[in-house]
Amino acid sequence: MKIVIAMLKHETNTFSPLPTPLESLGPNGGPLRGTEAYDHFKGTRIPMGAFIDLAEEIGAEIVIPVAARCAPSGPVAQDAFEQVTQEICDCVAQGCDALFLDLHGAMVTEGCEDGEGGMLERIRRAAPDVPIGVGLDFHANMSERMVRNCDVAVGYKTYPHMDMYEAGYRAGQLLLDMIAGKITPRLSFANCPILPNILRQATEESPMKEIMARASALETGNVLAISVFPAFPLADTSHTRLSVLTVTDGAAEAGRQVCREVLDLAWEQREGFVYENAPYKESVARAKTLDEGPVILLDMADNCNSGGTLDAMALVREALDQGLENVLAGPIYDPEAVAALVGAGIGSDVTVPIGGKFDLDAIGRPGEPLVLTGRVKRISNGRFVVRGPVFTGMQVDLGRTVVLDTGPMEIVVCEGRVEPLDLDMFRFVGIEPLDKRYIVLKSKIQYRPTFGAIAKHVIECNAVGVGSADFGQFPYKALTRPIYPLDEGATFSNEP
Ligand SMILES: [Zn+2]
């Protein structure tokens, strides 16, 4: 058996000023291919890793034409999308028994608001008989077109994402069962007009906790997989909204019934998806009253995994202005500052503008660098392997990384944009997060199993950035209206 495994994984924040060219879609200046991709993803706890394991377990020949991914940013360049899609099409058209795809589900390209839908449609056309199984992120903005053009799709069930491997494995396994004639998968899909705030999507909390519990109870018998997608609200598309996808063995009506039941519950619980927070200056003042650290100041608005530039300095500036001490901040994406700091060398005292290199046009804010004076404490090549519980085994490359010590604050500045996904993110440059009183961390929910586990307190701060939790800031154009909670007139009738 010959299995093609491929990846084009991008969560697109349509409000982000960061471009997404082909060169950004991989660790070494572009997508990985063949053995390089195999070596990079073999053993990782993400769908790609699961697909490789599954194919090896059944002794299949594996072909990896292309594996492309990067941190969330603005729409994917059209030529990059065309090239990666074409490489997959060409590969499957040469003949194979199955295609496993590791996709996100919220990709927007310069020319297409439904990146995955467009891609799957083209692959289907290139090789109509090849069975396609897809692993998807929990934040997929699922579309009818995606559903129509694959045989099996399974999304993560957790946020923070702890089951990325399991979701991929399940998708692959169901596709193999189909090929073996054991099941006849049918996909059912439906959505409802809710735009859930990302801060209200954690699966250990209401309302997702109850919704996922209901879905899990219904996943039995011929209902083989239920994926609930609360959506990625910062991708402004016509299909951005909460949705449910089921895979049933035949029994399409059972799948439709499950979709209805889960959506009814979501609509009933819709007020739980609304997030409100105090002005961030008040949040920092509150953090100052806490007597035990580490206190995490969560810089939610500039969260890289929501498409933030990772260089918005408003919260860092506020922490210093209010006189917080023993602060750790970062990583901040700023290749220009890195060059200046590396040029100065370890031990030098320098004054440099840090961050704020991007204008945030969508929310009407110019880039605002923060001029800091301090001593260059450490310089690293920025490479390490994640040892923690999430993204375990992933090779991370932050590019050249510098620690600047300003006295009250140690700030980590680097050439790459990576979510603070593990404590190793700071330990590899000799900083122990446990010893810090405050940590300014650019994350929303995903930090919880790692930094959350060591925090004495977490203060959610909605400062400045294109990942803001305040939907009112964003100029939505494509979104289908009315939608809750943006519009008063949003209604949902779930009759068959
Ligand atoms: Zn996600």
Characterise this structure.
This protein has 496 residues and is of the alpha/beta class. The protein has two domains: 272 residues, Rossmann fold, CATH 3.40.50; 189 residues, no CATH class. Helix content is 27%, strand content 22%. The protein has an eight-stranded mixed beta sheet, with helices on one face. Strands 1, 2, 3, 4, 5 and 6 form a six-stranded parallel beta sheet that branches. β5, α5 and β6 form a beta-alpha-beta unit. α2 crosses α6, α3 runs parallel beside α4 and α7 packs antiparallel against α8. The site of zinc ion has 4 residues, from loops.
Largest sheet: 8 strands, mixed
Low-confidence stretches: none
Q: Structural class of the secondary elements?
A: alpha/beta
Beta-strand proportion: 15-25%
Strand line-up of the largest beta sheet: 12-13-16-17-11-18-10-19
Rough outline:
globular
Give the N-terminus to C-terminus distance in angstroms.
41 Å
CATH third-level topology of the largest domain: Rossmann fold
Total tally of structural domains: 2
Q: What is the annotated CATH architecture of the largest domain?
A: 3-Layer(aba) Sandwich
